[in-house]
Amino acid sequence: DVTLFGHLDTSLDYTDVSGGGDDINMNCTTCSVGVKGSEDLGNGLKAMFKLDFQFDMTERNRASDGTNSITDRDQWLGLGGGFGSVKFGTISTGYKSTGAMIDPLYRTALQARGFGIQSGLHLGAGENGQGRMTNHVRYDSMNMGGFKAIVDYSFDSDDTDADNGDDTYALTGLYDNGPILAFASYITNDHGDEDSAWKLGGSYTMGSFKVFGQYEKDDGLLSSFAKPNTVDGGDVWHLGGTFTMGNNMLYLAYGEGDDNSNNAGEYDSWTLAATHSMSKRTMVYTGWNTTDMGGADADQFSVGIKHKF
Amino acid sequence: DVTLFGHLDTSLDYTDVSGGGDDINMNCTTCSVGVKGSEDLGNGLKAMFKLDFQFDMTERNRASDGTNSITDRDQWLGLGGGFGSVKFGTISTGYKSTGAMIDPLYRTALQARGFGIQSGLHLGAGENGQGRMTNHVRYDSMNMGGFKAIVDYSFDSDDTDADNGDDTYALTGLYDNGPILAFASYITNDHGDEDSAWKLGGSYTMGSFKVFGQYEKDDGLLSSFAKPNTVDGGDVWHLGGTFTMGNNMLYLAYGEGDDNSNNAGEYDSWTLAATHSMSKRTMVYTGWNTTDMGGADADQFSVGIKHKF
Amino acid sequence: DVTLFGHLDTSLDYTDVSGGGDDINMNCTTCSVGVKGSEDLGNGLKAMFKLDFQFDMTERNRASDGTNSITDRDQWLGLGGGFGSVKFGTISTGYKSTGAMIDPLYRTALQARGFGIQSGLHLGAGENGQGRMTNHVRYDSMNMGGFKAIVDYSFDSDDTDADNGDDTYALTGLYDNGPILAFASYITNDHGDEDSAWKLGGSYTMGSFKVFGQYEKDDGLLSSFAKPNTVDGGDVWHLGGTFTMGNNMLYLAYGEGDDNSNNAGEYDSWTLAATHSMSKRTMVYTGWNTTDMGGADADQFSVGIKHKF
Fold this sequence. Notes:
Three copies of one chain form a homotrimer.
Chain A: E1 2-17, E2 22-28, E3 32-42, E4 45-54, E5 71-81, E6 84-92, H1 94-101, E7 125-126, E8 132-141, E9 147-154, E10 169-177, E11 180-188, E12 196-206, E13 209-218, E14 235-245, E15 248-257, E16 267-277, E17 282-293, E18 296-308
Parallel strand pairs in A: 7-8
Antiparallel strand pairs in A: 1-2, 1-3, 1-18, 3-4, 4-5, 5-6, 6-8, 8-9, 9-10, 10-11, 11-12, 12-13, 13-14, 14-15, 15-16, 16-17, 17-18
């Protein structure tokens, strides 16, 4: 049972930064191709794997062109059964996975994390709390009446540490039942001082309408992975809604963030978008975002196409 | 509908450069493996994609071994229908694609572009007229009685440009009907001055014989991508023929080129080759090329095997 | 006939180096995914290929993170028939392949070559005798009553050599029949002086018991690829056994090595391990190794899971 899968997205993005230039560029948002599979081991147990590779469809992909080599996404080997599942490798954290669940524009040019209204903990890769965690054991519990728990643990690879006390871990609780999705997540890299973040979020569906949002409070994990971490963090939140008519969807979201706890570096961001599903796997979209960073504006207008296989 | 495909070629190449050394090396000419697929969207429309990756079967492929990392070839997402097709991503230009159509030794150790008798516009990758264009929208028209048009447009990614006036584009017309293939192509990166090239070419089949050729006139696009481009170009042409007997083919081609319009850097090149098709997908070949660069000779003798899947 | 295949292994490894630190890390031992296929050409002949790519499931894979880019393993195109097979590309040597055949923990965290009791000629890649040889033609003879010969030849790519006299080659003889596996191998990179190595090894199966071992004598090929090679080599040997009960296996092996012929740099190594096969393709394992390098000890305790597809 081995399957090829992929996620392809290309967009034309017009960007206009106040005091800077404007330009139209072609971009590819997290394009990837991979192999996944499972094997029945009997006794309700199965072996599972996913090997996802990221590349850029619109630019060159090779080391000699800057840092733009073909790279990895979630790549893990695991076991599944009545107990839930346990996976080993490079895997998104529960913190990040739940953020993805409430963004209908996830992995497009207009995704919420692209404008900072989902925090940097939903991006990047590494073993210090980044969205995709390396050296990672992830446990997903079985579904208990809609409730699920996710435990993330990353084995720090820096063997110059005397105490080994800085393995990153996260705990996420998730309730997903009928119209309601709700989650809470806590993550820390155990570096000392300002080394953790937590969030609350969810979505609610009423017929054609859906509302979603998330509040993130960061002690400083966003801002620094240094040991000990003495950099203050900030908070990030957003609230949005969609209205679905047949194959079409309207999207509106507003969010705010700041870089640290004294509210320096504040910004707010509006996104208005429309999508049209040509099939279950192929979507075209367009939308506009404006982000105000204390007076300096950045605008983006995008037209894109996304295809999954 | 997702399919794995690949192109594999290995050869032993004896090279002898006058005044230099001689050597036998093993090479791999543009080996690649990829995934392609399509999805029927109804109403005569389909989503299509192709994701081709290049590697070197005979050498190490990793960033730490020079620049020899696994890289990309044509990688695009597109829509097809009665109107033709439109593709977004990294795609060969119409200029390059038509050159490939007349070379029966394309993607082997003896390909015409390997000896400079098809110009550098059939090689490389980038957004300035290189053979494989990045940030690229390519439109292929529907077939109109054998006639087809190809429009290439590349969105310049350098946002430090004030005017955005240097997006590369190309126009190609192609007539392919029975024994006749004919094409014309124009390409410019709009950098100012000597910033364009054009070509005419085609092939004609008479029973077991086929003749083919191409003339390219370059104002300087070949020679420089600088802005404005004040480097003179040159011209490149070749003429060749094949004779097919069952699974075997004889090939002979002659071509000339120069580096710029005052005829400095002239060279001419002869290639004689024979191929044997073991199947529709597997071919063995051998051949000899001699290139005379104003007195200095380079000779190459190759034996190779090529397999497609 | 195109097939996806892969080898996935993740382990948690506790390491303790005397005088150094101790740590628990997550590792991936030679994880890979690839494509292989064959085509019937008639007359008992077939075209064959294998394209294997290596990556690290537990760490980032990209050029900008050190040297950790996605890379190649065996990647070749070849022909098979009554004569045996001939392959062109990047291929394991017969020297290395026979070492793999006697290690039941091959491609796990506890593999013999990981502790130096199979020599460095079973590792790495290049054209100077490394385990995976580039620019390589490998001939495997037909099976003759259990006996097979392997010839390896690598075309040196360094064309600054005047004499071309340093193409690496290896000869391996192999007898594999019923309970008996026996092999001998000779390899040289022809660099002059201490430029070769040879080995003898095999295994014998008695019911649930199996014993295996290998003796390697190196003139210096292990130690230096310089021309001429004046660095002394050493010898490496190991002896081990397994006991199989149903899906479970016990493993014990002891080996010794030194860095050069005057016995400097001596080390010895014990490994005790147990494996449990959850299926033909999925295995869990645990084990302990201690390596004594003239007083300095390194200990490793590992728990891992391995899956093939």
